[in-house]
Amino acid sequence: MRLKGKVVLITASTRGIGLACAVRCAKEGAVVYMAARNMERAEARAKELNEQGYTVKTVFNDASDKDSYRTMVEEVIRQEGRIDVLVNNFGTSNPKKDLDIKSTEYEEFIGTLDMNLASVFLPVQAVIPHMAKQGGGSIINISSIGGLRPDISQIAYGTSKAAINYMTKLIAVQAARDNIRCNAVLPGMTATDAVKDNLSDDFREFFLKHTPIRRMGEPEEIAAAVVYFASDDAAYTTGQIMDVSGGFGMPTPVYGDMIERTDRR
């Protein structure tokens, strides 16, 4: 019950990592608001959790409607009077169009940056005055290991996540005087529907060859890191960029080939 009494707002939380965060935060005693565009799906998820004895509510948010970030925050404040934890989980990319520097259209590049950066900047800008007034809070940005490790594709997605990592540090510095902490969690390859639908088996196998913990992460494992940053256990922790990727990219660049040869013996 590390989050007992806290109000937690999570964007894009009806499936995948966002849903895992909602479930884990609810189990830790929080009042959880699932922010989503598909309210029918959100309400169904909330009903399931409420029937298990947790306190989960819904609020509308559409990433394509930038004003909805402000109204989302205002609605939770209207109902609860406070927001203790904000989890910015939304992120988007089109792997079929978000390619390398030679092949990606500028409109695709700038559109992805606009969506992904707005999904952090706008809700944080909206929530900070309320957190400052109540005496503090915790902001957690779900970034990506792709923001640390340059890739041969998805130039827009990687650039946007790198920017979110830096923005996390800026927010941490600029909001600290109001007792507001800001940290980021960087998932590696995680077993979500989006990964299963968009990445080929060959790519997943290649990626995991370079991951010392040789499996995909589970959404619940990302949620565990989120709960840490949300809780008072992290009261003196801010501006941190936590890699939760099974060690992807940490070893020598020839690690994958070396492991493959070892496995053949």
TrEMBL record:
It comes from the Bacteria. GO terms for biological process: bile acid metabolic process. Keywords: Lipid metabolism, Oxidoreductase, Steroid metabolism. GO terms for molecular function: oxidoreductase activity. Belongs to the short-chain dehydrogenases/reductases (SDR) family. This is NAD(P)-dependent dehydrogenase (Short-subunit alcohol dehydrogenase family).
